[in-house]
Amino acid sequence: MDYDIRDSLHDAAPERKAGISATARGEHDSVMRMFEEFKASNDERLDAFGRRADVLLDEKVDRINAALDAQMKRIDDLALKSARPALDGVRARVTEVAAREHKSAFEAYVRQGESAALRGLETKAMSAGSNADGGYLVPVELEREVGQRLAAISPIRGIASVREISGGVYKKPFMTAGPAAGWVGETDTRTQTTSPTLDALSFPAMELYAMPAATATLLDDSAVNIDEWIASEVELTFAVQEGAAFVNGDGSSKPKGFLQYDTVANGSWVWGKLGYIASGNAGAFAASNPSDVLVDTIYALKAGYRQNGNFVMNRKTQATIRKFKDSGGAYLWQPPVQAGGRASLMSFPLIEAEDMPDIAANSLSIAFGDFRRGYLVVDRRGMQVLRDPYSAKPYVLFYTTKRVGGGVQDFDAIKLVKFAAS
Question: What pLDDT is stored for residue 118 in this prediction?
């Protein structure tokens, strides 16, 4: 490569978050110092490469690389903690009498199992608040809180489009053939144009559940915020299951992950399939100019998608790419510009999704695209809780369910890197 990649790519500013703590700033400063040490050690390793094998240098670079991964994980955890909204702020905005009644009735149900008030509210509202398996709708602020937490910790949900629905399936129409059009003079005869041909993509909402357990002592403790407790108990379970499904879900009783769609070499791309660019080497990057495939992948996207592009890969793949440089000697991977920001690759935000596969023969280990336009998450309105004090005595189980779907909505907005010769 005889040009500087940085000059040819869109300059997308890394994400920034307000209210960064002193701890987060300290962790960020540590990452910056560690990355400088990594660059110096890796440069020394590259200088020695070819003259002699230096096992100690290789081990040192790998050790710093692993430490960088661990430090970035700590920064991600701090960013997640600061991104969690306080329930009190949401609760203050929901001041309707019905919402207060619902919250009070729901708390009585969770703490003591008293469901009469919730049944009365449902009857008064003529609402089918219980599903076929039983359970009751949670207060709107708790449902909103869980949704906000999931957006902060579920990597694909955080960059995808999210739509709330009230039915079981969301259908999105699209044109397979547009109406005929053309240029005519002011007084020329207008011929009748053909009508557009429409089709629809379907996104069914599947049931996702978690079952946190509580002791009677916890439920009797009035100082315990029940809403906060339920949200914190289910958020990680929901996020882990969602994250796996949005990447690799087979679409059977779960969302369909973007890696489960048919793929084709990008030069032969057609609607309904995702295009891929081959790395040039089975199970690895190309031996020479390994970063060229990243440039090719970026420019495989149309300009309208590229400006909002994100790289998606797991931490192990990121560690490999961290050693790449451009023709000017600058590292392609860069740590967050400020505390609370996101690492970037060739100026584009880098999203860590541990459900992405490791680099292997024919693996699709890197995705790049405008996921806001490319992938759709559908949430069916209404999260429900069923109190079960019998199945695991002396503990009380809370069978918590929400309905979630997902799938690719624009097959031109996401490109993949396939680790294959062609």
Answer: 77
Return the pLDDT at 151: 84
Q: What pLDDT is recorded for position 160? A: 96
* Residues 6+ away with beta carbon under 8 Å from 277: 265, 266, 293, 296, 297, 300, 415, 416, 417, 418
- Tokens of residue 68, six digits: 């960088």
pLDDT of 32 reads 81
Question: Torsion angle, CA of 274/279/280/281, rounded to 10 degrees?
Answer: -120
Q: What is the 3-state secondary structure (H, E, C) of the chain?
A: CCCCHHHHCCCCCCCCCCCCCHHHHHHHHHHHHHHHHHHHHHHHHHHHCCCCCCHHHHHHHHHHHHHHHHHHHHHHHHHHHHHCCCHHHHHHHCCCHHHHHHHHHHHHHHHHCCCHHHHHHHHHHCCCCCCCCCCEECCHHHHHHHHHHHHHHCHHHHHCEEEEECCCEEEEEEEEECCCCCCCCCCCCCCCCCCCEEEEEEEECEEEEECCEECHHHHHCCCCCHHHHHHHHHHHHHHHHHHHHHHHCECCCCCECHHHCCEEEHHHCCCCCEEEEECCCCCCCCCCCCCHHHHHHHHHCCHHHHCCCEEEECHHHHHHHCCCECCCCCECEECCCCCCCCCEECCEEEEECCCCCCCCCCCEEEEEECHHHHEEEEEEEEEEEEEECCCCCCCEEEEEEEEEEEEECCCCCEEEEECCCC
Size of the chain, expressed as the number of residues it contains = 422
**Among 412, 369, 162, 176, CA closest to 275:** 412
Count CB neighbours of 420 within 10 A: 18
Query: What residue has token string 């702020």?
Result: 89
The series of mean pLDDT values per 10 residues for the chain, 422 residues long, is 45 46 73 81 73 68 80 69 55 58 83 80 53 69 87 90 92 72 77 71 94 92 88 91 95 96 96 96 94 96 94 96 92 85 92 96 97 96 91 92 95 97 90
- What token pair was written down for 193? 């144009």
Per-residue pLDDT, 122:
64
The pLDDT value recorded for residue 139 is: 85
